[in-house]
């Protein structure tokens, strides 16, 4: 059995898109998110509004991504990983919408840090009070 930490982040993201393919095929807009810890994707999913309202009536969104749009979305998501630099914890969100038959994607890369980890790495004795003045 292969462990996730043995797979590259690109391969992990590819697996995420394969898992979400069926759900994405029913959506024309939303946000795919992946949460990353130690360069391993843990939680992932889709945020979307399944209903839209017009003229006082709520109706389900009918059209979803077609095969070409899914492939384009996946390719853009994988390409966006080239912009991830020097961080191992965070979240990547992919906002997507289909307009006039074309899929548009915005990638948001968010790095997360934990102060407790810094305090372990830099014990109090190595950080003088003078350097912490504001």
Explain how this protein is built:
- The strands form two sheets. A four-stranded antiparallel beta sheet has the order 2-1-5-6, with helices on one face. The chain has a two-stranded antiparallel ribbon with strand order 3-4.
- The chain starts with 8 loop residues before the first helix and ends in a 13-residue tail after the last helix.
- Helix 1 runs antiparallel to helix 2.
- Helices cover 28% and strands 34% of the residues.
- A hairpin with a 2-residue loop joins strand 1 and strand 2.
- By secondary structure, it is of the alpha+beta class.
- It is elongated and about 65 Å long.
- The mean pLDDT is 86.
- The longest helix has 16 residues.
- The protein has one domain.
**Main β-sheet description:** 4 strands, antiparallel
Q: Whole-number radius of gyration?
A: 20 Å
The helix/strand class is alpha+beta
Mean pLDDT equals 86
- Please report the total strand number as a whole number: 6
| Helix content percent band | 25-40%
Which residue ranges are poorly predicted, with pLDDT under 50 across at least 5 consecutive positions? Answer: none
Following the backbone from N to C, one meets helices and strands in this order, namely: HEEEEHEEH
Strand arrangement, largest sheet?
Answer: 2-1-5-6
Q: What is the general shape?
A: elongated
How many individual helices? 3
Count of the separate structural domains: 1
Strand proportion: 25-35%
Terminal Cα span: 51 Å
